[in-house]
Amino acid sequence: MTDAEWETVRPLLPVPAWLRGRGGQPEAYCHRVMLDAIRYLVDNGIKWRGMPVDFPPWDRVYAFFRRWRDHGLVKEFHDRLRGQARVTLGRDAAPTAGVIDSQSVKGGRRRRCRQPRLRRRQTHQRP
Question: Over 90: is that where the pLDDT of 57 sits?
Answer without folding.
Answer: yes
